[in-house]
């Protein structure tokens, strides 16, 4: 047996050998091997549905692999349970935060431990945390409630929490999705420094080539459940990575504008509503959206975009003002949305726009998935019509699913997104309101979804695009508004849009 690979500071290697994972007849992972050397920063790439989460879950003991072996520091381990993995020093950091928002950073660290005593000696714990922090190359404010921390600080705290728990092999699952580019660079810079110091070994799932090139040492690429390539990052270009992921060079898209903006369809003026905390007011003035244009709403996460989406979907009560759609008051009831042909693509579509326990075909067939009618057989056209419709949409939008009858919740995140977009862009649409449509998607899916939005705009659809990704806003919008502190802080046509100026307004500088 090989000698356990551990660096002097504690980072150790993890290796998965010949991993196979089947769900029924479907093989999500097909004889994949991956070795993450002690103290390395290893990137795991692959299109949506390639099997990245599956291999990670098998390594962490969330899934019992159908076949395969896991070696931790060179020793074979039965990963029967996530607790086994955690006990061996393996930890996970997710794209969304797992911290308790009302507790301070220090309190979050203390309660994260499995051995937290029933009565906590805060003085002793505080001293222990300070001693721990002193050994760390970066810190976060310890005494503030986590909900007051910026996203970058929260993600740093998630990483510190793992180190505090003694974990020395970290799996980072798209850790920068909710961070600004500057925050992402800061967090990944710290992670890289930790790996170089031999403190920790990292496996990072990401879709961002820039992050791979800038921070990772090695990479592995999965495609359709198989390992299709990998090696040293310094030997590979982003084009190499893209062709490994897709099996071919990506096609350049043609996003010409072939329409001029028409009449104003949607107007929001004098609208006031409480924000999620109930403490601040969201104030939306002077927003108008025209047919055949994409109006981008830029902003750092948490500046009222979520509330704006809720206002537009009728989920947040207005304290004053109204939304005007095609000249009449719009309160976003189902009937009004149908009448005005308004469609929505909310964030987290599995939760907000699907019936997770129903099949892919059913979810593609029923926009009004949560209407009580759904239960009544009379509402159903026929199973064969539903299947035909679903098969056509799956082919057109390239949704990867094991079958039409599979539950939509078994699809990877990107494929759920494609399925919902396929449904929402089918038929007669006049207004499309989308929120972060490409969040967490691989570049092929991103490109396909952006093409669809541009096609819809060119057909005359009025699109409100709320996005925290400024590159996306710059790429797609005809006009841009910036939300900051719950208000519209700035507006510019794309022709004169300047990233630095927009960034300045996003950061709250008038
Ligand atoms: N519990 C499950 N039951 C059935 N099929 C599943 C299950 N979990 C995953 N799959 C299927 O396995 C395949 C791989 O999924 P996985 O979540 O590993 O992809 P991924 O590479 O992480 O994708 P993404 O980037 O979209 O998160 C997908 O086709 C998915 O539908």
Briefly say what this structure is.
InterPro entries: AAA+_ATPase, ABC_carbohydrate_import_ATPase, ABC_transporter-like_ATP-bd, ABC_transporter-like_CS, P-loop_NTPase. This protein has 510 residues and is α/β, with parallel strands linked by helices. 32% of the residues lie in helices and 24% in strands.
Structure characteristics:
ATP hydrolysis activity, 32% helix, P-loop_NTPase, 17 helices, Rossmann fold, six-stranded mixed beta sheet, 510 residues, binds adenosine-5'-triphosphate, ABC_transporter-like_CS, globular, alpha/beta, ATP-binding
Coarse morphology? globular
- CATH architecture of the largest domain, by name, is 3-Layer(aba) Sandwich
What is the overall pLDDT average? 87
CATH class of the largest domain: Alpha Beta
Low-pLDDT runs of 5+ residues are 368-379
> Strand share of the residues?
15-25%
Number of beta-strand segments: 21
Distance N terminus to C terminus? 64 Å
Reading side by side through the largest sheet, how are the strands ordered?
6-7-8-3-9-10
> Number of helix segments?
17
Q: How would you name the CATH homologous superfamily of the largest domain?
A: P-loop containing nucleotide triphosphate hydrolases
Provide the structure class. Answer: alpha/beta
Helix content: 25-40%
* Ligands, ions, cofactors: adenosine-5'-triphosphate
Instruction: Report the major sheet.
Output: 6 strands, mixed
Backbone CA Rg = 24 Å
Domain count: the total is 2
CATH fold name of the largest domain:
Rossmann fold
GO molecular function: ATP binding; ATP hydrolysis activity
Keywords: ATP-binding, Nucleotide-binding
Protein name: ABC transporter ATP-binding protein
InterPro entries: AAA+_ATPase, ABC_carbohydrate_import_ATPase, ABC_transporter-like_ATP-bd, ABC_transporter-like_CS, P-loop_NTPase
């Amino acid at each position: 047996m090989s000698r356990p690979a551990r660096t002097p500071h504690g980072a150790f290697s993890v290796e998965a050998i010949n991993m196979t994972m089947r769900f029924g007849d479907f093989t999500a992972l097909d004889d994949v091997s991956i070795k993450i050397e002690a103290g390395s920063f290893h990137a795991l790439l692959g299109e949506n549905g390639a099997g990245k989460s599956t291999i990670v879950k098998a390594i962490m003991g969330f899934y019992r692999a159908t076949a395969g072996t896991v070696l931790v520091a060179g020793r074979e381990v039965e990963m029967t349970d996530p607790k086994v993995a955690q006990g061996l020093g393996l930890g996970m950091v997710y794209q969304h935060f797992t911290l308790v928002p009302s507790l301070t950073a220090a309190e979050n660290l203390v309660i994260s431990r499995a051995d937290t005593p029933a009565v906590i000696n805060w003085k002793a714990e505080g001293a222990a945390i300070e001693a721990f922090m002193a050994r760390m190359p970066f810190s976060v404010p310890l005494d503030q409630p986590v909900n007051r921390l910026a996203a970058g600080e929260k993600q740093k705290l998630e990483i510190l929490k793992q180190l505090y728990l003694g974990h020395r092999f970290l799996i980072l699952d798209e850790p920068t999705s909710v961070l600004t580019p500057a925050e992402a660079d800061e967090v990944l810079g710290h992670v890289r420094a930790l790996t170089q110091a031999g403190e920790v070994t990292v496996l990072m799932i990401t879709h961002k080539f820039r992050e791979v090139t800038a921070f990772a040492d090695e990479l592995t690429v999965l495609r359709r459940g198989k390992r299709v390539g990998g090696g040293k990052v310094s030997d590979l270009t982003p084009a190499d990575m893209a062709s490994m992921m897709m099996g071919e060079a990506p096609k350049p898209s043609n996003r010409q504008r072939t329409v001029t903006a028409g009449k104003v369809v949607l107007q929001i003026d004098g609208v006031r509503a409480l924000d999620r905390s109930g403490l601040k007011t969201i104030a939306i003035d002077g927003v108008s959206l025209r047919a055949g244009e994409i109006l981008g709403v830029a902003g750092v996460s948490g500046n009222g975009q979520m509330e704006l989406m809720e206002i537009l979907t009728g989920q947040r009560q207005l304290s004053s003002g109204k939304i005007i759609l095609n000249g009449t008051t719009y309160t976003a009831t189902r009937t009004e949305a149908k009448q005005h042909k308004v469609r929505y693509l909310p964030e987290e579509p599995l939760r907000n726009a699907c019936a997770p326990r129903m099949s892919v075909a059913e979810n593609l067939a029923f926009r009004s998935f949560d209407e009580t009618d759904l239960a009544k057989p009379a509402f159903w056209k026929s199973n064969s019509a539903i299947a035909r419709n679903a098969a056509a949409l799956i082919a057109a939008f390239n949704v990867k699913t094991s079958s039409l009858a599979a539950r939509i919740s078994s699809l990877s995140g990107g494929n759920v997104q494609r399925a919902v977009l396929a449904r929402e862009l089918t038929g007669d649409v006049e207004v499309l309101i989308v929120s972060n449509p490409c969040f967490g998607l691989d570049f092929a899916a991103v490109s396909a979804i952006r093409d669809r939005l541009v096609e819809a705009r060119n057909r005359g659809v009025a699109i409100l695009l709320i996005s925290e990704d400024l590159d996306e806003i710059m790429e797609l919008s005809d006009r841009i508004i910036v939300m900051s502190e719950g208000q519209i802080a700035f507006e510019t046509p794309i022709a004169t849009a300047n990233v630095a100026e927009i960034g300045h307004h996003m950061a709250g500088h008038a």
